[in-house]
């Protein structure tokens, strides 16, 4: 598998450690919310992050549109010998629960996903319906980052308005490089913690 500049492939990114550390920082931060819980990573990519989360979660699940990425994951990670289910999913078309054998989740992670969707509403509806009551949706959205891989561009107001259509209880954080803290409109990434 090659690194194109968009999908994280840890062992192929020696020339882009900034991108790698930004992505790793989100998963390390999310560890605080995943202990002994059933966790789904929606748009898990090569599963480097899901492997991190599996160190504390009780069960882990990963969905991604790329079968190649999931094959990479199966060849590279053991998920700390925890139960792990991986599946291919087009987030604009397919419900999560259908793929994950009708399970609901305590936590759904989805970092750098929403901007890749021409229509994010089916995805967010699936997230909400796939969470247990009081479950957490933890996500990130880049701040006005034009990219040939992105179908939408979000500033903070647009990101907040989108998420508010599905979640009323949202705590917002900001990320610059590997540092996650208070959210301000100029942060490089917006990180949300939404409760179902």
Note down, in words, how this protein is organized:
The chain has an eight-stranded mixed sheet with strand order 3-2-1-4-5-8-6-7. The chain has helices spanning 17-30, 48-53, 67-76, 96-99, 121-130, 156-164, and strands at 38-42, 59-64, 84-88, 105-111, 131-142, 169-176, 179-182, 189-195. The chain has a single domain, classed as Rossmann fold (3-Layer(aba) Sandwich), CATH 3.40.50. It is globular. With 196 residues, it is α/β, with parallel strands linked by helices. A hairpin with a 2-residue loop joins strand 6 (169-176) and strand 7.
CATH class: Alpha Beta
Summarize the biggest pleated sheet: 8 strands, mixed
Distance between the termini: 36 Å
Q: Helix amount, in percent?
A: 25-40%
Radius of gyration equals 15 Å
Strand-pairing-aware structural class: alpha/beta
Low-confidence parts lasting 5 or more residues at pLDDT below 50?
A: none
Number of strands: 8
Domain module count: 1
Instruction: Give the CATH architecture.
Output: 3-Layer(aba) Sandwich
Strand arrangement, major sheet? 3-2-1-4-5-8-6-7
> How big a fraction of the residues is strand?
25-35%
The CATH topology is Rossmann fold
Name the average pLDDT. 89
Oligomer: single chain
Shape call: globular
Task: Compile the SSE list and pairings.
Blueprint: H1 17-30, E1 38-42, H2 48-53, E2 59-64, H3 67-76, E3 84-88, H4 96-99, E4 105-111, H5 121-130, E5 131-142, H6 156-164, E6 169-176, E7 179-182, E8 189-195
Parallel strand pairs: 1-2, 1-4, 2-3, 4-5
Antiparallel strand pairs: 5-8, 6-7, 6-8
